[in-house]
Amino acid sequence: MADELEALIAGLSQPQKSVSPKYFYDEAGSVLFDEITRLPEYYLTGTELAIMRDNIAEMAALVGPQASLIEFGSGSSYKTRLLLEHLEDLAAYVPVDISEEHLLASQQRVRQAFPHIDVLPVVADFTHPFQLPDPTTMPVRNLVYFPGSTIGNFEYDDAMKLLRVMYQEAGQGGALLIGADLQKDPEVIHAAYNDSAGVTARFNLNMLTHLNRAFGADFDLDAYEHRATYRPDEGRVVVELVSSHKQLVHIGDATITIAKDEAILTEYSHKYAIKTFAAMANSAGFAVDRVWTDPREWFSVQLLVRD
Ligand code: AVJ
């Protein structure tokens, strides 16, 4: 908690103020994100799920029998369920999450629906290498699963670091199945992060409620506006909270001055060209085995393999 507070204050003390997107996801934020995934404008979740459904047989055939499924994060039950249903003779399901609570909940759901699958949850921050549990059945290979285009939250260097951790956790002959959102008509992307019902705005603003509660900060909740801008040249959405007037915010021992119209960066959401994503995969050591997309080519699910 002391480290977290320090990092938070450091982020708010830079010329470009920023707060990590991990602070979106308190209880209220997780409910709001669920709501986002069902919005008509938010094409990501539905498109990815359709790609999974349409290609799950081929995916399972490529992965082969007796794999160990290692999920980075434990929050994506529908897509995971497809894999649990279709992967042949799974050696184990290993959800990895920093939240023990999330892990327990997902573990319970999976144990109930798939009583024959060995569930071995790992509490870990998956941005750093971690030890995999010993499975009862020896897996033929590891399949790391990282859906949702969550990779898009990370700037290039951190995304590369994460891909290298996944390479390591995949192990010899292992693979990574990853969801990556693609570049497309900027208006489609803009709408996905500026929905007409205002859910994304509430999701963004909820971060401040969370920080006030968790760190005893005093952000004035009425003073900020949601802003999400797609920058095609950078290939990413920039999500910010913009202050409507000058104010002082107290957090820990720090006092932060926020100017009128100053923006706090809360999230990047990168949108990839298939080529640049392949280059990233390659420099992490993976070969791109297969790229599945939807008919409009809005989203991709990619199977990356290693020797
Ligand atoms: C969960 C990171 C994939 O970037 O689209 C949704 C989060 N932010 N609306 C995304 C998000 C605003 C989402 N990811």
Describe the overall structure.
- The chain is of the alpha/beta class and 307 residues long.
- It is built from nine helices and twelve strands.
- It has helices spanning 2-12, 27-37, 43-63, 77-86, 100-113, 156-170, 186-192, 199-215, 274-283; strands at residues 67-72, 92-97, 122-123, 141-146, 175-181, 224-231, 236-243, 247-251, 254-258, 263-270, 287-293, 299-305.
- The strands form three sheets. The chain has a seven-stranded mixed beta sheet with strand order 3-2-1-4-5-12-11, with helices on both faces. Strands 6-7-10 form a three-stranded antiparallel beta sheet. A two-stranded antiparallel sheet has the order 8-9.
- The radius of gyration is 20 Å and the shape is globular.
- It starts with a helix and ends with a strand.
- The model has no long low-confidence stretch (mean pLDDT 96).
- Bound molecules: N,N,N-trimethyl-histidine (AVJ).
- The site of N,N,N-trimethyl-histidine (AVJ) has 11 residues, from strand 10.
Please summarize what this structure is.
The chain starts with a helix and ends with a strand. The protein has helices at 2-12, 27-37, 43-63, 77-86, 100-113, 156-170, 186-192, 199-215, 274-283, and strands spanning 67-72, 92-97, 122-123, 141-146, 175-181, 224-231, 236-243, 247-251, 254-258, 263-270, 287-293, 299-305. Helix content is 38%, strand content 24%.
